[in-house]
Amino acid sequence: MSNRLVSYAGALLLIQGLAGCSDENKAAQAPREPATAAMVGTGAAGTGAAGPDQPVGDTRLILAFGDSLYAGYGLRSDQSFPARLERSLKAKGMTVIVRNAGVSGNTTAAGLSRLDFTLEGLERKPDLVMVNLGGNDMLRGIDPKETRANLTAICKELKRRGIPVLLTGMIAAPNMGRDYAEAFNPIYADLANRYDAALYPFFLDGVVTDKSLMQADRVHPTAQGIDVIVAKLEPLVAKSLEQKAR
């Protein structure tokens, strides 16, 4: 593991004691988050009716499919990662819509179970699916073999549908033990290579070690933290869309 990942793992150790809180309690505390996968039809800014934010012509459609880190736990809907990513891409001159399909508390198994339903609920096939799942598996100590199998099934289905994938990864906290980390940490890079997916190794890169960019739970970024993540991830998203267009 690189020195940077070691420092991240140390920061993740701080949040382990918080992982025991139930998903129900987390959901109750969150000011706003998507209710169900069926909500994916709404735009990142929360608009649902057909209008200028609907994909037409050359508009690119991105699906942000993940857990609370995509859902925008503890934030307003316009502060979520999908909303801020859409705004940033538009500011660069891209015509794009980012659909928020993040559900707080989702494991890879839960994500896999709603993947088809979520995709079928879109107005058309997305130009890119961003996948951010696995953090809850790690925090719950789920066998990395199960995490790998579920993420493999997700990538396999997206590839079958001809949809490009961008994986945003997670790393294991050090108190999960060396064996767990050695089984968990390589999953995202392995799948990126196997399914020709773009890879952003750690979603919380540059954020998790800065207390000012994390909410009080030390698990979820603040709005400012989301902006840092978007700035880092946006070039890779744009590149993925450009490659899709060729």
Write the layout of secondary structure elements.
Elements: H1 3-15, H2 23-29, E1 60-66, H3 68-71, H4 81-91, E2 96-102, H5 108-120, E3 128-132, H6 135-140, H7 144-160, E4 165-168, H8 178-184, H9 187-194, E5 198-200, H10 223-245
Parallel strand pairs: 1-2, 1-3, 3-4, 4-5
Helix pairs in contact: 4-10, 5-7
Report on this model:
By secondary structure, the chain is α/β, with parallel strands linked by helices. Helices cover 44% and strands 11% of the residues. The chain has one domain: SGNH hydrolase (Rossmann fold, 3-Layer(aba) Sandwich), CATH 3.40.50.1110. The protein has ten helices and five strands. α4 (81-91) crosses α10. The N and C termini lie far apart (35 Å). The model is unreliable at 13-39 and 41-55 (pLDDT under 50).
The count of strands amounts to 5
**In CATH terms, what is the architecture?**
3-Layer(aba) Sandwich
Number of domains: 1
Cross-sheet strand order for the largest sheet? 2-1-3-4-5
Instruction: Give Rg in angstroms.
Output: 17 Å
Weakly predicted, low-confidence segments:
13-39, 41-55
Beta fraction? 5-15%
Tags for this entry?
alpha/beta, 246 residues, Rossmann fold, 10 helices
Structure described in brief:
With 246 residues, the protein is an alpha/beta fold.
